[in-house]
Protein backbone atom coordinates (compact mmCIF):
# COMPACT_ATOMS: atom_id res chain seq x y z
CA UNK A 1 0.00 0.00 0.00
CA UNK A 2 1.16 3.56 -0.67
CA UNK A 3 2.99 5.00 2.31
CA UNK A 4 1.16 8.30 1.96
CA UNK A 5 -2.27 6.71 2.20
CA UNK A 6 -1.30 4.40 5.05
CA UNK A 7 0.36 7.10 7.15
CA UNK A 8 -1.96 8.17 9.99
CA UNK A 9 -3.06 11.77 10.13
CA UNK A 10 -1.82 14.07 12.86
CA UNK A 11 -3.85 14.16 16.07
CA UNK A 12 -6.48 16.88 16.16
CA UNK A 13 -4.73 18.60 19.09
CA UNK A 14 -1.51 18.97 17.08
CA UNK A 15 -3.33 20.31 14.04
CA UNK A 16 -5.27 22.72 16.25
CA UNK A 17 -1.98 24.07 17.61
CA UNK A 18 -0.64 24.52 14.08
CA UNK A 19 -3.79 26.28 12.86
CA UNK A 20 -4.57 28.43 15.86
CA UNK A 21 -1.94 31.11 15.38
CA UNK A 22 -3.02 32.27 11.92
CA UNK A 23 -6.37 30.84 10.80
CA UNK A 24 -8.76 31.80 13.58
CA UNK A 25 -9.28 35.59 13.85
CA UNK A 26 -11.04 36.86 16.98
CA UNK A 27 -13.96 38.26 14.97
CA UNK A 28 -14.94 34.76 13.78
CA UNK A 29 -16.93 34.39 17.03
CA UNK A 30 -19.30 37.15 15.96
CA UNK A 31 -19.63 35.67 12.47
CA UNK A 32 -20.63 32.20 13.69
CA UNK A 33 -23.17 33.58 16.18
CA UNK A 34 -24.73 35.68 13.42
CA UNK A 35 -24.81 32.75 10.97
CA UNK A 36 -26.30 30.28 13.47
CA UNK A 37 -29.04 32.71 14.53
CA UNK A 38 -29.98 33.46 10.91
CA UNK A 39 -29.99 29.76 9.95
CA UNK A 40 -32.19 28.88 12.94
CA UNK A 41 -34.66 31.61 12.01
CA UNK A 42 -34.98 30.26 8.47
CA UNK A 43 -35.96 26.70 9.41
CA UNK A 44 -39.59 27.08 10.68
CA UNK A 45 -40.92 29.20 7.80
CA UNK A 46 -39.59 26.94 5.07
CA UNK A 47 -40.78 23.84 6.90
CA UNK A 48 -44.28 25.35 7.11
CA UNK A 49 -44.21 26.23 3.39
CA UNK A 50 -43.37 22.62 2.47
CA UNK A 51 -46.05 21.26 4.81
CA UNK A 52 -48.58 23.77 3.46
CA UNK A 53 -48.04 22.58 -0.11
CA UNK A 54 -48.66 18.94 0.80
CA UNK A 55 -51.50 19.66 3.24
CA UNK A 56 -53.59 21.98 1.03
CA UNK A 57 -54.87 20.39 -2.18
CA UNK A 58 -55.63 23.80 -3.69
CA UNK A 59 -51.97 24.80 -3.46
CA UNK A 60 -50.83 21.91 -5.65
CA UNK A 61 -50.19 23.57 -8.98
CA UNK A 62 -46.99 23.86 -11.05
CA UNK A 63 -45.96 27.31 -9.75
CA UNK A 64 -46.47 26.31 -6.12
CA UNK A 65 -44.48 23.12 -6.76
CA UNK A 66 -41.56 25.38 -7.74
CA UNK A 67 -42.14 27.42 -4.57
CA UNK A 68 -42.15 24.22 -2.52
CA UNK A 69 -38.95 23.09 -4.21
CA UNK A 70 -37.34 26.44 -3.43
CA UNK A 71 -38.34 26.00 0.22
CA UNK A 72 -36.80 22.51 0.24
CA UNK A 73 -33.54 24.02 -1.02
CA UNK A 74 -33.70 26.84 1.54
CA UNK A 75 -34.39 24.36 4.33
CA UNK A 76 -31.35 22.28 3.33
CA UNK A 77 -29.30 25.48 3.23
CA UNK A 78 -30.27 26.27 6.81
CA UNK A 79 -29.62 22.72 8.05
CA UNK A 80 -26.33 22.10 6.23
CA UNK A 81 -25.07 25.55 7.15
CA UNK A 82 -24.67 24.52 10.79
CA UNK A 83 -22.02 21.92 10.04
CA UNK A 84 -20.15 24.23 7.69
CA UNK A 85 -20.23 27.14 10.16
CA UNK A 86 -18.84 25.00 12.97
CA UNK A 87 -16.07 23.55 10.79
CA UNK A 88 -14.99 26.96 9.45
CA UNK A 89 -15.59 29.42 12.30
CA UNK A 90 -14.48 27.44 15.38
CA UNK A 91 -10.97 26.31 16.27
CA UNK A 92 -11.98 22.73 17.06
CA UNK A 93 -14.08 22.57 13.89
CA UNK A 94 -11.17 23.74 11.77
CA UNK A 95 -8.94 21.11 13.34
CA UNK A 96 -11.51 18.37 12.66
CA UNK A 97 -11.94 19.47 9.04
CA UNK A 98 -8.17 19.63 8.58
CA UNK A 99 -7.76 16.06 9.81
CA UNK A 100 -10.87 14.44 8.26
CA UNK A 101 -10.97 14.75 4.49
CA UNK A 102 -14.52 13.59 3.81
CA UNK A 103 -16.02 15.51 6.71
CA UNK A 104 -14.65 18.68 5.11
CA UNK A 105 -15.66 17.73 1.56
CA UNK A 106 -19.20 16.72 2.56
CA UNK A 107 -19.86 19.86 4.63
CA UNK A 108 -18.42 22.20 2.00
CA UNK A 109 -20.12 20.27 -0.81
CA UNK A 110 -23.53 20.48 0.89
CA UNK A 111 -23.14 24.22 1.30
CA UNK A 112 -22.12 24.71 -2.33
CA UNK A 113 -24.94 22.41 -3.54
CA UNK A 114 -27.65 24.19 -1.56
CA UNK A 115 -26.46 27.59 -2.76
CA UNK A 116 -26.50 26.28 -6.33
CA UNK A 117 -30.01 24.91 -5.85
CA UNK A 118 -31.19 28.31 -4.55
CA UNK A 119 -30.00 30.03 -7.73
CA UNK A 120 -31.43 27.29 -9.96
CA UNK A 121 -34.79 27.42 -8.16
CA UNK A 122 -35.07 31.21 -8.35
CA UNK A 123 -34.25 30.96 -12.07
CA UNK A 124 -36.98 28.33 -12.49
CA UNK A 125 -39.53 30.59 -10.75
CA UNK A 126 -38.47 33.55 -12.90
CA UNK A 127 -38.80 31.48 -16.07
CA UNK A 128 -42.28 30.36 -14.97
CA UNK A 129 -43.36 34.01 -14.66
CA UNK A 130 -41.60 34.99 -17.89
CA UNK A 131 -43.65 32.38 -19.78
CA UNK A 132 -46.84 33.52 -17.99
CA UNK A 133 -46.27 37.14 -19.03
CA UNK A 134 -44.86 36.75 -22.55
CA UNK A 135 -46.45 33.46 -23.66
CA UNK A 136 -49.72 33.61 -21.76
CA UNK A 137 -51.68 31.67 -24.41
CA UNK A 138 -49.22 28.78 -24.25
CA UNK A 139 -48.59 28.94 -20.49
CA UNK A 140 -50.97 26.16 -19.43
CA UNK A 141 -49.67 23.92 -22.23
CA UNK A 142 -46.01 24.43 -21.40
CA UNK A 143 -46.05 24.80 -17.60
CA UNK A 144 -47.67 21.51 -16.60
CA UNK A 145 -47.21 19.33 -13.53
CA UNK A 146 -45.19 16.85 -15.59
CA UNK A 147 -42.86 19.47 -17.07
CA UNK A 148 -42.28 21.15 -13.74
CA UNK A 149 -41.52 17.81 -12.06
CA UNK A 150 -39.00 17.08 -14.82
CA UNK A 151 -37.41 20.51 -14.19
CA UNK A 152 -37.24 19.87 -10.42
CA UNK A 153 -35.66 16.42 -10.89
CA UNK A 154 -33.18 17.87 -13.40
CA UNK A 155 -32.14 20.65 -11.00
CA UNK A 156 -31.43 18.24 -8.14
CA UNK A 157 -29.75 15.66 -10.42
CA UNK A 158 -27.29 18.27 -11.70
CA UNK A 159 -26.68 19.74 -8.22
CA UNK A 160 -26.11 16.33 -6.60
CA UNK A 161 -23.86 15.19 -9.46
CA UNK A 162 -21.63 18.25 -9.04
CA UNK A 163 -21.61 17.68 -5.26
CA UNK A 164 -20.37 14.10 -5.76
CA UNK A 165 -17.46 14.91 -8.08
CA UNK A 166 -15.06 16.08 -5.32
CA UNK A 167 -15.98 13.03 -3.22
CA UNK A 168 -14.84 10.77 -6.06
CA UNK A 169 -11.47 12.42 -6.44
CA UNK A 170 -11.80 15.84 -8.08
CA UNK A 171 -10.50 17.80 -5.09
CA UNK A 172 -7.31 19.44 -3.81
CA UNK A 173 -7.70 18.60 -0.11
CA UNK A 174 -4.55 18.71 2.00
CA UNK A 175 -4.14 18.10 5.75
CA UNK A 176 -3.86 21.22 7.91
CA UNK A 177 -5.61 23.41 5.30
CA UNK A 178 -8.77 25.38 6.21
CA UNK A 179 -11.97 23.83 4.83
CA UNK A 180 -12.83 26.51 2.27
CA UNK A 181 -13.45 26.23 -1.46
CA UNK A 182 -10.14 27.78 -2.53
CA UNK A 183 -8.27 25.00 -0.69
CA UNK A 184 -10.57 22.09 -1.52
CA UNK A 185 -11.50 22.64 -5.18
CA UNK A 186 -9.42 23.14 -8.30
CA UNK A 187 -9.85 26.41 -10.19
CA UNK A 188 -11.33 24.54 -13.17
CA UNK A 189 -13.95 22.81 -11.03
CA UNK A 190 -14.96 25.82 -8.94
CA UNK A 191 -15.10 28.33 -11.79
CA UNK A 192 -16.38 25.97 -14.49
CA UNK A 193 -19.09 24.20 -12.46
CA UNK A 194 -20.00 26.76 -9.81
CA UNK A 195 -18.99 30.40 -10.39
CA UNK A 196 -19.64 30.76 -14.14
CA UNK A 197 -22.93 28.74 -14.32
CA UNK A 198 -24.32 30.57 -11.29
CA UNK A 199 -23.34 34.00 -12.61
CA UNK A 200 -24.99 33.15 -15.94
CA UNK A 201 -28.09 31.94 -14.08
CA UNK A 202 -28.25 35.16 -12.07
CA UNK A 203 -27.80 37.21 -15.25
CA UNK A 204 -30.60 35.39 -17.08
CA UNK A 205 -32.79 35.69 -13.99
CA UNK A 206 -32.15 39.44 -13.79
CA UNK A 207 -32.97 39.97 -17.49
CA UNK A 208 -36.18 37.93 -17.19
CA UNK A 209 -37.36 39.85 -14.13
CA UNK A 210 -36.61 43.27 -15.60
CA UNK A 211 -38.65 42.24 -18.64
CA UNK A 212 -41.44 40.87 -16.44
CA UNK A 213 -41.58 44.01 -14.30
CA UNK A 214 -41.62 46.30 -17.36
CA UNK A 215 -44.42 44.38 -19.06
CA UNK A 216 -46.45 43.96 -15.85
CA UNK A 217 -46.38 47.71 -15.17
CA UNK A 218 -47.36 48.45 -18.76
CA UNK A 219 -50.22 45.95 -18.66
CA UNK A 220 -51.49 47.29 -15.33
CA UNK A 221 -51.60 50.84 -16.72
CA UNK A 222 -53.54 49.66 -19.76
CA UNK A 223 -56.22 47.83 -17.76
CA UNK A 224 -58.44 50.88 -17.21
CA UNK A 225 -58.54 52.07 -20.87
CA UNK A 226 -59.11 48.52 -22.08
CA UNK A 227 -62.01 48.08 -19.69
CA UNK A 228 -63.88 50.82 -21.58
CA UNK A 229 -63.18 49.38 -25.04
CA UNK A 230 -63.60 45.68 -24.38
CA UNK A 231 -67.13 44.54 -23.74
CA UNK A 232 -68.19 42.11 -21.06
CA UNK A 233 -69.03 39.49 -23.69
CA UNK A 234 -65.42 39.44 -24.89
CA UNK A 235 -63.96 38.80 -21.44
CA UNK A 236 -65.28 35.73 -19.70
CA UNK A 237 -65.36 35.46 -15.94
CA UNK A 238 -62.96 32.53 -15.99
CA UNK A 239 -60.49 34.41 -18.19
CA UNK A 240 -60.61 37.47 -15.92
CA UNK A 241 -60.06 35.34 -12.83
CA UNK A 242 -57.06 33.56 -14.37
CA UNK A 243 -55.53 36.82 -15.55
CA UNK A 244 -55.99 38.47 -12.17
CA UNK A 245 -54.55 35.48 -10.34
CA UNK A 246 -51.51 35.32 -12.64
CA UNK A 247 -50.86 39.02 -12.07
CA UNK A 248 -50.97 38.54 -8.28
CA UNK A 249 -48.58 35.59 -8.48
CA UNK A 250 -46.24 37.59 -10.72
CA UNK A 251 -46.12 40.49 -8.24
CA UNK A 252 -45.49 38.08 -5.37
CA UNK A 253 -42.61 36.32 -7.15
CA UNK A 254 -41.10 39.62 -8.29
CA UNK A 255 -40.92 40.54 -4.62
CA UNK A 256 -39.31 37.18 -3.81
CA UNK A 257 -36.71 37.65 -6.55
CA UNK A 258 -36.04 41.22 -5.41
CA UNK A 259 -35.36 40.04 -1.86
CA UNK A 260 -33.15 37.26 -3.25
CA UNK A 261 -30.94 39.77 -5.08
CA UNK A 262 -30.87 42.09 -2.06
CA UNK A 263 -29.56 39.21 0.08
CA UNK A 264 -27.03 38.03 -2.51
CA UNK A 265 -25.73 41.41 -3.72
CA UNK A 266 -23.24 42.08 -0.86
CA UNK A 267 -21.78 38.56 -1.21
CA UNK A 268 -21.51 38.81 -5.00
CA UNK A 269 -19.88 42.26 -4.94
CA UNK A 270 -17.38 41.38 -2.19
CA UNK A 271 -16.61 38.01 -3.79
CA UNK A 272 -15.91 39.72 -7.12
CA UNK A 273 -13.78 42.36 -5.41
CA UNK A 274 -11.66 39.79 -3.57
CA UNK A 275 -11.17 37.58 -6.63
CA UNK A 276 -10.18 40.60 -8.75
CA UNK A 277 -7.23 41.07 -6.33
CA UNK A 278 -5.98 44.63 -6.99
CA UNK A 279 -2.21 45.04 -7.21
CA UNK A 280 -2.00 46.72 -3.80
CA UNK A 281 -3.75 43.73 -2.20
CA UNK A 282 -1.34 41.28 -3.84
CA UNK A 283 1.53 43.09 -2.12
CA UNK A 284 -0.04 43.94 1.24
CA UNK A 285 -2.88 41.44 1.53
CA UNK A 286 -6.66 41.95 1.50
CA UNK A 287 -7.73 44.70 3.94
CA UNK A 288 -9.12 43.35 7.19
CA UNK A 289 -12.42 45.22 6.88
CA UNK A 290 -13.02 43.65 3.46
CA UNK A 291 -12.48 40.16 4.89
CA UNK A 292 -14.81 40.87 7.83
CA UNK A 293 -17.51 42.27 5.54
CA UNK A 294 -17.15 39.26 3.22
CA UNK A 295 -17.62 36.76 6.05
CA UNK A 296 -20.65 38.60 7.43
CA UNK A 297 -22.14 38.75 3.90
CA UNK A 298 -22.40 34.95 4.07
CA UNK A 299 -24.74 35.32 7.04
CA UNK A 300 -26.77 37.86 5.07
CA UNK A 301 -27.52 35.15 2.47
CA UNK A 302 -29.64 33.47 5.12
CA UNK A 303 -32.13 36.33 5.23
CA UNK A 304 -33.62 35.14 1.94
CA UNK A 305 -34.93 31.83 3.38
CA UNK A 306 -36.32 33.79 6.35
CA UNK A 307 -38.28 36.37 4.37
CA UNK A 308 -39.75 34.14 1.62
CA UNK A 309 -42.41 32.36 3.77
CA UNK A 310 -43.59 35.77 5.06
CA UNK A 311 -43.99 36.97 1.46
CA UNK A 312 -46.02 33.86 0.55
CA UNK A 313 -48.24 34.31 3.61
CA UNK A 314 -48.70 38.03 2.96
CA UNK A 315 -49.37 37.86 -0.78
CA UNK A 316 -51.14 34.47 -1.10
CA UNK A 317 -54.40 33.82 0.73
CA UNK A 318 -54.17 30.01 0.46
CA UNK A 319 -50.65 29.93 1.90
CA UNK A 320 -51.71 32.30 4.69
CA UNK A 321 -54.76 30.24 5.66
CA UNK A 322 -52.77 27.00 5.57
CA UNK A 323 -50.06 28.57 7.76
CA UNK A 324 -52.77 29.54 10.23
CA UNK A 325 -54.11 25.99 10.30
CA UNK A 326 -50.66 24.52 10.85
CA UNK A 327 -50.08 26.97 13.70
CA UNK A 328 -53.51 26.33 15.18
CA UNK A 329 -54.62 29.95 14.71
CA UNK A 330 -58.36 30.44 14.36
CA UNK A 331 -59.46 32.07 11.09
CA UNK A 332 -62.34 34.53 11.47
CA UNK A 333 -64.97 35.18 8.82
CA UNK A 334 -63.64 38.66 8.02
CA UNK A 335 -60.11 37.32 7.40
CA UNK A 336 -59.26 38.06 3.70
Automatic annotation (TrEMBL):
GO terms for molecular function: G protein-coupled receptor activity. Its main location: membrane. Residues 45-312 form the G-protein coupled receptors family 1 profile domain. The chain crosses the membrane at residues 27-54, 66-90, 102-127, 148-169, 189-212, 252-277, 289-311. Keywords: Cell membrane, G-protein coupled receptor, Glycoprotein, Membrane, Receptor, Transducer, Transmembrane, Transmembrane helix. GO terms for cellular component: plasma membrane. Gene3D superfamilies: Rhodopsin 7-helix transmembrane proteins. It is found in: Cell membrane. It is a multi-pass membrane protein. The keyword Glycoprotein applies. Belongs to the G-protein coupled receptor 1 family. This is G-protein coupled receptors family 1 profile domain-containing protein.
